[in-house]
Amino acid sequence: MPTKYSDIIMYLDAIAANANGSISGAPHGYWWHVNQDGTQPPLAYNDFITGTVSGIGVPIIGTDSKRTDPLQSTFYILLTTPGGNGTYNQMPWKGPYITDAGYSVQLGNEGPQISGAQIMANLEEWLGNGYPE
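User: That's the sequence. What structure does it adopt?
Assistant: Structure tokens below.
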């Protein structure tokens, strides 16, 4: 089954829930939700694919306003590149990271476990296929 927007939100929520420390104090908070504390619904699909990370103003997808290279987006690089991008550290800030050996998270309260490698592959597939809703 192809990766869709709701999967991406589940991955981000699971990564945040598994982080070493709360992300609520970060300048961006839970930027993929309507408010930064993560208690509200996720951003509308169009706001996610065309918007910026709240609190820091970086485009979510793409490196320019046309989103011409989503695999070079800050969103993708900061989740998948050890060390980050030179401006920002890999996320979540204190780890663990989806690139760590043996990394896995549970999706939702009683959902399946998914490995970091599978999350990364699904992100690549979603971004590479035009980020389907």
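The beta strands are 104-106, 113-115.
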